[in-house]
Amino acid sequence: MEKAIELLAPAGNMECLIAAVRNGADAVYFGGGAFNARRSAANFTGEALKEAIDFCRLRNVKTHITLNTLLFDRELEDALRFARELARLHADAVIVQDTGLAALIREQLPELDVHASTQMGIHSLGGLKYCEELGITRAVLAREVPLEEIRRMHESSPVELEFFCHGALCMGFSGSCLYSSMAGERSGNRGTCAQPCRKNATVLRRRAGADEFALSTNDIAMIDELDALAEAGICSLKIEGRMKSPEYVATVTRVYRAALDGEKPRDARKKLFEIFNRGEFSSSHIRGDSVTTGHVGSAKPPRELVAEAHESFARERPVREASACLTIEEGRPARLRLSSGGCTALVTGDICSKAERPADKERLAEQLKKLGGTVFYPGDADIAGAGFIPLSALNALRREAVSKLEKALLDSVPPFEEREVSADKRLDLGPAGEPPLVYSRVRTADELRAARGDIIGFDPALPDQVDTESLALAAAGRRLVLILPNVLITEGARAACEKLLSSGVFAGVEVNNISHRDMGLKLPLRIAGIGMNVMNCVAASRLLSMGFTHFMPSPELTRPQLADMAKRLGSRMIVNTLLRTPLMQLMHCPVKEYRGCRGCRGKTGMLADGEGRLFPLENVRFAEGYCLVRMLNSALTDVREAFAASGMRVYAAAETADSYPDTPVTRGHWSRAVD
Questions:
Q1: What is the pTM of this model?
Q2: Is 503 exposed, middle or buried (0-12, 13-18, 19+ CB in 10 A)?
Q3: Could you tell me the sign of the dihedral formed by the alpha carbons of 513, 628, 295, 232, in that order?
Q4: How many other CB atoms sit within 10 Å of the CB of residue 22?
Q5: Which candidate among 81, 203, 649, 650 keeps its CA 20 to 30 Å from the CA of 159?
Q6: Which domains does the chain have, with CATH numbers?
Q7: Three-state secondary-structure class, residue 572
Q8: Interatomic CA distance for residues 19 and 554, integer angstroms
């Protein structure tokens, strides 16, 4: 492969990290405590964290530490201090989802590279522009981005692009999933996803059977697409699997390493399939939708493959050349200088005695080159002097020199500049203007005519077919806000929404992905919707400073958390008091897979789980031939009475028109916190 491309492997514990490094990973990513999306992995804390980072640095392997969860206000200070500790330990980068935390790190810890997590949902050039402005050096792209969009993004932005090349594929668009949270208080945005999508589900209107898994996708494998991904501009290929075994990490890393080096084994796909699979692999959406559902995991690899994996990381892999110079002069201490990577270790031994015969310099040099079991492989070995040194003493000198050289290499980076960090960033936002009392959501002109409220959010099912003149008449003088989908995966989809925004009908825009925060900049109302994942005041303030006039806090916040946020930013908040919460944003339509495309115009069907609960599916369809399908909650979140009684100083509350009568009602997370 002509173009160098990084291979980034997962590490859920130290054994997995060793397996990744010794099988050729250029970089590893792992968690360092509570603030990462795989909190049930072993992760690394305290001395184990330092040991892991040092282990990798000594072997020329980069470390990317996951800080990729949404954070409550009370957690920001600890997360920022943890980032400071990572900078002190010389980690190479942090992977971040929370926009507030990302801004704090860039402002206060500039020596630490920030990578935008795939949970940030970046899938277009607009997202890369946001990264560039903030100083984020790399974006882990959404798995749904096709090759032509990757190429367009690469050609138009200096931000590095990272992409998942192998492993599990979430059915829902990353960072926009509330299914686990609403189903049982375990939040995927906070690292405790219970994976309800892997449980029984069907698109039929009945309780899902034991063998039905309409939301459980097959895994991805890009082993045959590496050249195409490199040509499109991907600089780092990421293997999923921080919850997987060391054998899995070793096997997958070794296969992809060989492929990137131009030595892909004939049985590459077979080994990848045997170590773990969920049915036949897909290439996700890079060449169109190749995803299929109905799969459960199989992790019963043959013993021979497991033994081969163990063998691959059982011994040290020398990666640094070391040159040696031994001085043995009669009557003086023996001296050994060992050098590598611009660093030198000098050790001295006992007084050399007189040699009874000329020193066998060739034998001594060979002894110096015995660096097996270390990170070093031998370079030149020079011998000076004619004294005598026993081989046992020489071996001891060599071992001591190796230890000192390792320490010298680890100490060779500039020391961290100690300083305080703080998450208490208060912004003087100025007056918000007269806020709306009711903000209603509608999908059609008929719903618009019947809607209450002085501001109406319009969420079209067919953005490229909206009759703006009829829409203006139906609005009857009320201000219209265009609700953007969470995902606009192509330039054509974005252009359809841009055309609506420029029609003169809309007074504002509701943005639900950071990739679209530059749309509707000249409109007087700019609302950051729930898709923007505002979990703390720093994230909210960051968005407001970028030109948003209002924001919707995350549906995962409780009443006390909302009240605390309202004390600081209440006049800018829009609290959803009646909402059919969108649980997942699907680029693969389970209804289409089951019975073909039905040409849906807003209502796609229903999905039922193993308990018989019904989840409405609605879609946004674009003329260019793809849909975004939203899976809505089986219950309607209604906190109108509780909100009114709360005394919360929030002037704007969002209300939605509900098209599903006789629906169960929930208070969501109003009084039950997520983990």
A1: 0.94
A2: middle
A3: negative
A4: 20
A5: 81
A6: 6-169+217-312 (3.20.20.70), 320-410 (no CATH), 438-580+636-661 (3.20.20.120)
A7: helix
A8: 38
